[in-house]
Design brief:
mainly alpha
């Protein structure tokens, strides 16, 4: 009972956080989770640090990590190539010349991002294969992705390492987003041109497409937030 009461009371000398601090902390945590939808920064840094700083199983863990990264890059590259094909097929529609400039700009941007995802995936796959085939691949991996802290003696990844490793996935997600933005802009532009009359096919198409698109977006955000939240809980460990 005493422990329970102590858990519920603030410690002596501690200050109760102010409302701005609580709001800023919530905003910072939410922004971190939102950013993790594109690039899982905290998850990647913690994973890399645990792998390299586990000295007894370092070669095994680094080898497994490299294999997982190669598999991820191959999957991302193939998916990005398929997305590039989907976007390119949109330019073959019979009425592409009548579409708004916003739609074509977003589709061209999505095509560029998809190609960038394919190229960056291939480059990173080649780099990881080069590291894995080196004589001392653990040293090559450690030197390529981070450095040791002279004070604490622990290895830390470079600040931009998670961003670089997540670059192909980031390009892929932005390519899909650009294509969908252009597509829905064109759908609703046709509905507005029809004066939003419910009897028109354009508004019915826009309504149904928006409902399905909203359902997909909500499910994607929910699944991504759940994965990020679970990963952060695993990194922090259970509460005692």
């Amino acid at each position: 009972m005493k422990d329970g009461m102590e858990l519920g009371r603030p410690k002596a000398g501690s200050r109760k956080p102010s409302v701005p601090q609580i709001m800023f902390g919530s905003f910072r945590e939410g922004s971190s989770k939102l950013l993790s939808l594109l690039v899982p920064r905290h998850w990647s840094r913690s994973t890399l640090k645990d792998i390299v700083n586990t000295e007894d199983r370092r070669p095994e863990l680094i080898g497994t990590y490299i294999e997982c990264e190669i598999t991820k890059m191959n999957t991302t590259g193939v998916t990005a190539a398929l997305i590039a094909g989907v976007i390119s097929s949109g330019f073959d529609w019979y009425n592409i010349d009548d579409t708004a400039w916003v739609t074509r700009a977003m589709w061209f941007s999505g095509l560029i991002l998809a190609v960038a995802s394919v190229a960056s995936s291939a480059i990173q796959t080649a780099n990881f294969l080069r590291i894995k085939c080196s004589r001392d691949f653990t040293t090559s991996f450690i030197e390529a992705l981070g450095n040791y802290d002279t004070k604490g003696g622990h290895w830390h990844p470079h600040a931009l390492t998670p961003y670089v490793l997540g670059g192909p996935t980031l390009h892929l997600k932005l390519a899909v987003l650009a294509f969908l933005v252009g597509l829905f802009y064109e759908i609703w532009r046709a509905a507005v041109a029809a004066k939003l009359a419910w009897k028109s096919d354009e508004l019915r198409i826009a309504f149904i497409a928006t409902v399905i698109g909203g359902f997909v977006v909500v499910n994607y955000i929910f699944a991504s937030f759940t994965l990020v939240q679970n990963s952060m809980h695993i990194r922090k460990g259970p509460k005692v």
